[in-house]
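Final report, Chapter 2: Outcomes

The project's central promise was a pipeline that accepts a single protein chain and returns its three-dimensional structure in a standardized token representation, suitable for archiving and comparison. That pipeline is now operational. To close this chapter, we reproduce one record exactly as it appears in the project archive, with the input sequence first and the structure output second.
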Amino acid sequence: MIIVTGASRGIGRAVADRLVSQGEEVLGLARTSVSADFEILPIDVSSAEDVREVARSLRGRKTKVSALINAAGIAAMNLALMTPSGSARKIVETNLLGTIFSSQAFAPLIIRAGGGAIVNFSTIAVALALQGEAVYAASKAGVEAFSRTLARELGSRGVTVNCVAPGPIQTDLIKGISERQLGTVIQGQILRRQFTVADVCDVVEVLLDARSRSLTGHVLHIGGV
């Protein structure tokens, strides 16, 4: 089984759908349950206890977990000094703590299954220090730091940990961004074009492949920076 957080929409949903189409068993975690060709549990990943309860259930059923995709994430466009405290807290809780809690809960199951992969999600906003995304970028910078350290801690246990850092992908996450802002971000990439969720799925697919077991501790920027 592969666990995908944020599986109800956006990149998480696209990754889950891709995996299901390839015959993988997927368990999705999301705040809201929607119709899908795989099971989605209505879980808020910022709740450590809720995530641990899912892990306990899988352990009790002796479910073999081969990978975790931490795709749950939220963003809010605000200058650093104008970001409401409630918004800042929610962004950090979902993006950073959600990744930490999910990794803590499910990595032991991956180890028990003989090893596998954890794929976390960052953003180009970290590398480019995008204005108006300070808190979002800070939360994802935390994800990158956590991922690099986790890769070292889990390497001897047969678990790889990598980050995928997309630029602007056409999902709900960038609905409020103007064409001018999108153009500025794209110009900051090495490959100056907008990529798709399919491109993201391709990279995740590579990281999950057993032939990529030598790749760990990396942040892979889609489009390059």
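Archive annotation: The chain has a mean pLDDT of 95.
This record, like all others produced under the grant, will remain available to the consortium after the project formally closes.
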